[in-house]
Design goal:
7% strand; 92 residues; mainly alpha
């Protein structure tokens, strides 16, 4: 291996070390932001009143909201579809 090749390899290693240091710095900055954001969210959650009912997200959300609306209208639900509530039995 010639001296010029060794010099080129040393330069490549130095550049790789600088790139790696830059990545570590970016990672540490992002991790600090994430920790700060999580801490603020935890502090906010500690001051907010607890929610009584959790509404699911995604595909279950529509079914949950349909069921909730049917319950508020006095209807029942069956397999996610609103059905009329059974009529009260007459007393004899």
């Amino acid at each position: 291996m010639r001296r010029s090749e060794v010099g080129g390899l040393i330069l490549q290693v130095a550049e790789a070390e600088q790139a790696l240091a830059s990545l570590y710095e970016k990672y540490n900055t992002m991790a600090a932001r994430f920790r700060k954001r999580e801490q603020r969210a935890a502090e906010r959650a500690a001051h907010e009143p607890a929610q009584l009912e959790l509404v699911p997200q995604g595909s279950d959300r529509k079914a949950h909201l349909r069921h909730r609306a049917a319950m508020l209208r006095g209807l029942g639900t069956q397999n996610g579809a609103a059905v009329a509530a059974p009529a009260p039995e007459a007393e004899e």
